[in-house]
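Morning!

As promised:
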Amino acid sequence: MKINDVILKTVTRIVAFIILTFGVELFLSGHNNPGGGFIGGLVLSSAFVLLYLVNDIDTVRMGIPFDFKKIAAIGVFLAVGSGVGSVLFGEHFLTQAFGHFDLPVFGVTELSTVIVFEAGVALTVVGVVVTIILTISEDV
Amino acid sequence: MLTITLSIFIPFLAAIFIPFIYKRIQSRHIGWFVIIVPIALFIFLASFIPSIANGSTYMHSIRWIESAKIHFTTYLDGLSLIFGLLITGVGSLVILYSIYYLSERESLGRFYVYLLLFMGAMLGVVLSDNLMVLYVFWELTSISSFLLIAFWYHRKKSRYGAQKSMLITVSGGIGMLAGFIMLQTMTGSFSVREIVATIGQYTDEPLFLVALLLVLLGAFTKSAQFPFHIWLPDAMEAPTPVSAYLHSATMVKAGIYLVARFTPIFGGEAVWLYIVSGVGIFTLLLGSLNAVKQTDLKALLAYSTISQLGLVMSLFGLGSVALHHGYSTDSVIYTQATFAALFHLVNHSTFKGALFMVVGIVDHELGTRDIRRLGGLIAFMPVTFTIALIGSFSMAGLPPFNGFLSKEMFFEALVNARNLEIFATGTIGTLVLIIAWIASVFTFVYSMIIVFQTFFGEFHPERVEKPINEASKGMLVAPSVLAILVVIIFFFPNLIGNYLLRPAMTAIYPTFANAENLTPHIKAWHGLNTALWMTIGVIVLGTILYRFMRYWKGVYSIAPFNWNLDTAFNSSLSWLENGSHYLTRLYMKGYLKDYLVYIFVFFVVAVGGSILFTGSYSFDFSDDSSIAVNEFLIVLSMAGAALSMLFVKSRMTAIILNGVLGYSIALLFVIFRAPDLALTQTVVETVTTALFLLCFYFLPEWKKERSARKTKIFNGIIAILAGTIVTVLGLTVQGNKLFESISVYFEDAYRLAGGKNIVNTILGDFRAFDTMLEVVVLFIAGIGVFTLIKLKSKKEGQDIEDQ
């Protein structure tokens, strides 16, 4: 895939960061507002897909040297592992807990173990979507 | 005791870390790290011997699936302790042996991962109290043994043996699962202890007998009893340490464990006695007859294992008679059979383990284990010879080795069984006694073959593949330990009797008050009784038969000893393969169109049929809110887009129209105030459209399909039916309410899960199991796409084929 489009390339440089930030924001705010691991992961991966579409694969790989298959695997591991964690405390599989903490910069913040689970979901989504798109496009 | 539960998981945990350690460590054999696990577990389990001998048992339960009454319950009593000690003890020795046996060029990381998996699964089998947990571990032993047998997977025979053993043991296991479920439906419990306590009330249930037979099916397939014994000789393709471990000391004994464990449940039944003893005795005879004609030392040991397992099995069957009569001085005499079974179990693990290792040494040093090519090794391998001598003579039942003691008890138990009144007359009992005696003669013969044909006679250096040497010292340690145990047990049998076997006896006879009576005092000299005369007869006739073997061995080629069960297995397997090929070709046409037809026809029949059948196609519009104009417009444009998709000429337009559908749904979500769904829908639509466009360039020409009028009409009917049913379904769901809405639960989300976003708390807190599995499915799909596209062109598959 080689598209030589100056405008697209320039815009993507800025837009990609906006999308990535938005993805992280969606992921973090998920518990109380629209968002969450799945959507956050999808938005993040759409940013990556955009980068891959505009630049060629090797260029992006230099900037983001991750193996997205591994990221997906880590995601699944986190999601399942967070369930096992509650078993160790004598609770049912996948029981989540939450609490309110007074943190220095953020003030009183709600922290929940769901965040680990959601992070696993997000990483899996990012890993799988990017892997699929990369494999299909590389195959050509 | 949580520690017992943990001890099951320690091998699994270790198995996870082995690949990482294996990569780091090059200078040392990885086995030295693995061996720590069984040794530690052995010491840990051994520390329970005194308290278990005093009659205590240990139980620990972790809640697991409460709604199905499945708890992760571990239970340590005398019976599980014996098996636990065998698994970890023989396991340590086998790993020690394997360190010298397997060279570092083999993929050792893989080997030890499988071995640890197996060890954990085996511990799980013997320590679980819950039947479902036991079943899970049971099948895990089948799977890990499959992996171990197929360790040299480039050999065709290894793959065949692995497949055969897995097919037979797993199918038996599934039958056993059905039996377990029947037990649960009768007694209402999955716990072995609870079932043992209440089973007396259920013996008249019609399911009781079926459950008994199914459980026995599992036990017989695992323990290679007739007619399921055919997998064990083929499993000998595994590396010798695996054979020594799985096929003599542990896995094949899982079936025996099961029979022992279930004796208090089913033992009082005459059917149990007949089947367990009958099959056991027959297997004993068949195995010993077949062992004599083998020319491969390992195959000989395989058949001898089959026959010895049959012996132990038949003893457990005889011992169960005591439960039929209940506790009395008359019935206690029958419990001696069970005692002999347990004793022989331990003895068999020691001498057979040592013999397997000896055969492994011969194979390792000479490159062959064919008896016809061996001979005269005594001059070169004195230590190996000594071990082989001890092992074989113990197997033949000669003093001063432990096999003599348990063999004598076996004969005594059979002599006692002749007086049973369950047997119609004494004739069957006498017949059994004669069969057992004949089998013992042949056991004597093949034991002599191992020693004399391998180590005596003339040595032909041109027949073996390597120059001859005594095995390295390290390799001799493990079999020597076992051989020394063989002798020690002979001189101090009552140590084992009192500390290990007595608590196991109380586990098998929980209703028998006095454990002291159940434990006979084992004596090497027990008077000049029938049993001893039988042994003398075995030695005399065995020696004669062995001396003149070349005159009568021709009988094997005439007599139908080859029962052709292997042929039956192979032909049924290939019949199954061909049948399923034929069936698959019937419906796998390779046209996407056909598959869609299958799916939709099934949908129409199943869903439409059930709607019609239950008569639930009633609609109730009274509660519905009014439709706003903008909603109406969106739905109208969606319908328009869907319809026009049928008639467009270019693919690009079709993709865009598809996008219209997706984004309109997102818009509807916005209107109905579901921002989460709208967001997801938008992003998904965007990403899929991007994917579509990515492939777009490479897709072939868009062609209108021309099909016959009949197909067109048929497709039209299916389309209309499917559409109608979806619509009816939607309206029906909306109109009917069978259950109370569970939304109240979710409205409490902020208090219960601390999240204001209900959708998100449902996904992450309330129904996280769904989400987790979805993630797993997504991952599997991704891997699937990757492998289908990336790995298609590699043609390495050819290299590892048939050798």
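Chain B touches chain A at residues 62-63, 675-676, 679-680, 683-684, 686-687, 690-691, 694-695, 698, 753-757, 759-761, 763-765, 768-769, 771-772, 775-776, 778-779, 781-783, 785-786, 789-790 (CB under 8 Å).

Hope this helps with the figure draft.
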